[in-house]
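Structure request: Polyprenyl synthetase, marine sediment metagenome.
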Amino acid sequence: MQSIDFYRSAFISYLKENSQVREPVNLYEPITYILNLGGKRLRPVLTLLATEIFNKDFKESLNAALAIEVFHNFSLVHDDIMDAAPLRRGQATVHERWDVNTGILSGDAMLITAYQLFENYEADQFRRLAQLFSTTALQVCEGQQYDIDFENRDDVTLSEYLTMITYKTAVLVAAALKMGGIIAKASDACQSKIYNFGLNLGIAFQLQDDYLDAFGDPKTFGKQVGGDIIENKKTVLYLKVLEQGSVLQKKELLDMYSIQPEEPSAKIKTIKRIFMESGAAKFTQVAIAEYTDKAFKVLGELEISEEKKEILRGFGKQLMGREV
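Returned structure:
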């Protein structure tokens, strides 16, 4: 087994070898551009890691890892168009640098390319990988649609929100791990458990992202603290206030979400106070811990060595170790 940084470096090298611009340039240059904007490469690293966890050389899963990364970035290109987002990882989004039509077409080509990469595997592996990928890709689209629908609804429940983040975020983390298991020909039980490990960890990660957006340290969070509040996003914190807050807390929150001041600092401060006093902040912290514990409990049941469990446990702790 190697370090996370080793797998990341190996994947980035493979990505660069396989993302060269070719004709027509206006189709493939945007693809190369978005794939080389950086990022943690979390999902492909998990595929490589899981392959070696189940006793196969990580190099056998490089094509599947690339498929996961290409699909993830395809979804970002189209999400940025839907959100009219000007920036991605600090750089111009594809539709801003080129145009919307280019973003749509290059994104479509990325989705097709992701499927093509599975053709490098033998028939049974191809079938299993393609089935998992198709299910996951459709769930990601469903999660995105739920997210869009929630913007115009005032009756979103916590249960619905958890479904949305599971589909939009967690299933791709889970699938990345299971793909490693498929390529390594691990047992169905092991594939299922490592999938559930990734699913619970992915949910915990997104809940933590919601929490840190309000209460994180600006020096370590990596994004603007209070961004969700400024955008009036209905996060787990917001929904929990509406579920368990007092009449006054609910009214104050809804009033704050109905305004968009030029200087948002007072709005952010007020809403953070409501999150704290209503118990929504505490609830979110408990939920993060519960989903993280679920992930580690499933990990404990995996039929792999304690040394390998510790590697996955260390990855999980590192992922969830962002500072408040």
